[in-house]
Amino acid sequence: MVEFQTLKAEEIKFGNNNFIEVARKKAITDEGENEFISISRGFFLPDGNKRYKRSFTVPLEDEVINFISEKLKEV
What we know:
The protein is built from one helix and four strands. The chain is α+β, with helices and mostly antiparallel strands. The chain has a single domain (about 5-75), classed as Nuclear Transport Factor 2, Chain: A. Strands 1-2-3-4 form a four-stranded antiparallel β-sheet, with no helix packed on it. A hairpin with a 5-residue loop joins β3 (about 30-45) and β4. The longest helix is centred in the last third of the chain and has 13 residues, at about 60-75. It is flat, with a radius of gyration of 14 Å.
């Protein structure tokens, strides 16, 4: 079994009802723990709750994080 903990999350709303969330999360299993970055897209339900549509995870390696941030700015 895997338990996920959100350590920190930031979001930006866009469009009528959408958001993008960038979060630092931890996956906890019997074998150990693994921290990673999660980039998720979703929307808000009429009652204000979030519904996630897609998610992408990034390892906590400076080289990978720097590559993604640089390429996002270049595109």
